[in-house]
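Q: Structure tokens for this one, please.
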Amino acid sequence: MEAKQSFRQDYTDHVELSIFNCGHELCQPGHTWGPGIRDHYLIHLVVAGRGSFHIQDKKYDLGPGDLFLVKPNQLVTYSADSEEPWEYYWVGFNGACANRLVQQTPFGADTPVYHGQDIPLLQESLYNIYLARGLDPHSEALMVGYLYIFISHLIREAQALEPRSGNSSSQYVLNAIKFIQFYYSHDISIDDIANSVGVSRSHLYRVFMSNVGQSPIEYLTAYRIGEACHLLKTGKLSVAEVAVSVGFFDQFYFSRVFKKQMGVPPSRYLERLEKEHRE
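A: Here is the predicted structure, written as tokens:
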């Protein structure tokens, strides 16, 4: 068996949740990644051996059954033990709902490490993601489906450890996100979102910043632009039609916001994707 089996895709078509890479590796003694940052979420599950994970001046010594989470733009280093190097499975992902899903797992702001309860089930889920690997639409959808299953197992373990109250701040955020997902194409305001979950505008801002790391307007805007990217990729709608479809009723304002988020105006978005795909 190879020491490392992995899959990586540079072009992803699922704006909600996209897999960047996945795989399984039996590391060489002392094998190290970092210090460096990722532009996506990355979860490792250690199934054998030992190693260490360094983040924010903290060091975690890990072994079988431990999982560790790397968030986008976090400076981290992880190393295999020199005598008993670890073996792990991993998945890297991102997307409009990635942060919301991660917020519901056992990982917290100060707890990037978690010891799993049902290791065989978690391992099987990660391996299924790798088995489904491929660049065609069927494979991409299947990989994302298995990723949802993997995250659902982690969410279930989190709920078993600490049942969440229906009135908790995280629940307000989840309800607000559901409202956004249903009504983003309408002319909704932050007051509309706050009223839908029964909290004040200022309280909604606080719980979003605490749980998501973004303000409600930032999340709404990012969600709309993500949906706009998906519509542009179909090539069936004009820029003006896409703008209206995602809740922007001023095409020029939409173009400004889109360029700020994506780095290019919507009229040139497909050109950039095609160029990146060729490279």
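A few notes: The chain has a mean pLDDT of 88. The beta strands are 4-8, 18-26, 32-36, 41-48, 51-55, 58-62, 66-70, 76-80, 87-94, 113-115.
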